[in-house]
Amino acid sequence: MNFPEIFNRFFPAYQPIPAGNYSGTLRLQSSIPNKVHLRVEKNGTGIMILNGSIVLHLNQTATELTYHLLENRTDDQIIKTIQKRYGISREQAAADLNAFTGQLENLLNLPDVDPVAYLGIERVEVNTGAMSAPYRLDCALTYRHPDLSYLRSAPVERVKTELRAEEWKTILKKAWDAGIPHVIFTGGEPLLREECPELILYASNLGMVTGLLSTGYSLTEKTAQHLINDCGLDHIMIIFQEGDQEIWEKLDILIRQDISIAVHITITHQKRHEYIDLFEHLQQKGIRNLSLSTNSLDFRDEVFWARDKIAGMGISLIWDIPVPYSRLHPVALEIALSEENKETITGYSSLYVEPDGDVLPSQGENQVLGNFLKDSWETIWNAAIERRKIVNRIS
C-alpha cells in the first residue's frame, strides 16, 4: 500500500454533496415547517425553492448548509461538519450557520417578497457554471391577444396550433422532473386561455414557483383572488399599454393582494416628461419593480435614461422576463455596446416554449431547440448547451 492510499484510508477526502434534487421540510425558530426543494449542481452551487414561492440562488456553502438542514441534523452536528469541511473555527462555523438561518427567517417575514433572491450572500451568476437544467421555463400559452395590433413581434405565422391543457401539464411535469423550479405563463395574452388558472394550479401543486405576464385582461378582484389564493400564483407582471386607462384599476386590484407585482413599459418615444409622470404615478401606487424594453434601437438612449431614472427613484429593474421586445432590454443593449461581448447568452438560464410546444432560447429568437412535448429533455438541453458554446466562441 503506497502513501496516498494510506493517507486516504485514515484521512478520507471530503465527499461533496451529490448533484441532484432533494426535498423535505425546514423548521426555523420563528416559523412553521417550510417546504423546501433543493437542486444541487455539479459545481456545488444550488437553488432552493422555499414554500413553492421563492427561488433562492445559493453558493456552495449555502447549498451545503441547506442540505444538512434538510437532513434534520442538529446545529451542533452541522457546525462540526462545516468546521471540518472548511478548516475554520467552531465560532466561525456557528456564526455562518446563524447568519444563514437568520437570512431565511428575515426572508420569510418580508411582505410581497420578490420570487427570485440571492440571500445577500455571494451572488451566483445564473448564466455561468455547469447547470443541469435552466432555472425557469417561459410558457407562451397562446399568441392571441384582445388587441390584434399588439405584439406584432410574436411569430404567429409559423405557430399553427395551440397545445391542449393536458399537453401543457405533460410539459410542466417533464420540466419539474428535469429540475426546473420556476415557470412563467405568457403569450400573447395567457388569460385568453380559460385553462390558464388550471395550469397555474397544476404547476404550483408540483412545487414550482409560478408567474404570469398579462395586460390584466378580464382581471377582477374575484379572478385575482382566485389566481393567487386558490391557484397559487406567486408573482405577476402587468404589461403597460399606452392609452389603457383601465390599467390603474387593475393595478389597484393587485396591490390589495398578497403578491409580488411588477410593471413592464415599452419605450416608444422621446417625451421624457411623460415617462417621469408615469414612473412617479406607479411609485405612488406602490409599484417597486419595473421592466423596460424598446421596440426600436433608435430609442436605445431613452432606455438607458429610463433605467437610470428609475434607479434614482429606488425602483428595482427586472430585465430577464419574456416581455414584448424582450431582446431590447437595458442589460442586453448595454452588453451589445461592449467591445468584449457582442451578444447576450439566452437559452441557458431560461427557455421559452411556444404555443405548439417548440422550444426557443428566448422569446422572438427563432432557433428551435426541439419540441418539449415530442423530444426528450436531454435532446432539448443538449441543443441549448451546444448553442451556448457557439455563442461563447463567437463572442
Radius of gyration: 22 Å
Count of DSSP H/I helices: 12
Order of helices and strands: HEEEEHHHEEHEHEHEHEHEHEHEEEH
Helix content: 25-40%
Number of E-type strands: 15
Question: Would you identify the regions where 5 or more consecutive residues have pLDDT less than 50?
Answer: 1-13, 118-128, 339-345
Determine the strand fraction and express it as a percent band. Answer: 15-25%
Q: Rough shape?
A: globular
Largest sheet: 10 strands, mixed
- The N- and C-terminal alpha carbons lie at a distance of 50 Å
Spatial ordering of strands, largest sheet = 12-11-10-9-8-7-6-13-14-15
- The average pLDDT is 83
Determine the structural class based on helices, strands and strand pairing: alpha/beta
Description of the molecule:
The protein has 395 residues and is an alpha/beta fold. 38% of the residues lie in helices and 18% in strands. The strands form 2 sheets. It has a 10-stranded mixed β-sheet with strand order 12-11-10-9-8-7-6-13-14-15. The radius of gyration is 22 Å and the shape is globular. The N and C termini lie far apart (50 Å). The relative contact order is 0.10. Residues 1-13, 118-128 and 339-345 have low confidence and may be disordered.
